Amino acid sequence: MDIGFLIKAIIVGFLASVPLGPVGVLCIQRTINKGRGSGLFSGMGAATVDAFFALVAALGLTYIINFIEEQQFFIQLIGGAIIIFLGVKIFNTNPIQQIRKHRRKKKRLIEDYFSVLFLTLSNPLAIFLFVAAFAGMSIVTPKDSYIKSSFIVAGVFVGAMFWWAILTFLINMFRKRFRLKQLWWINKSAGIIIIIFGVVAMLSVFIKVF
Question: Residue 189: pLDDT above 90?
Answer without folding.
Answer: no
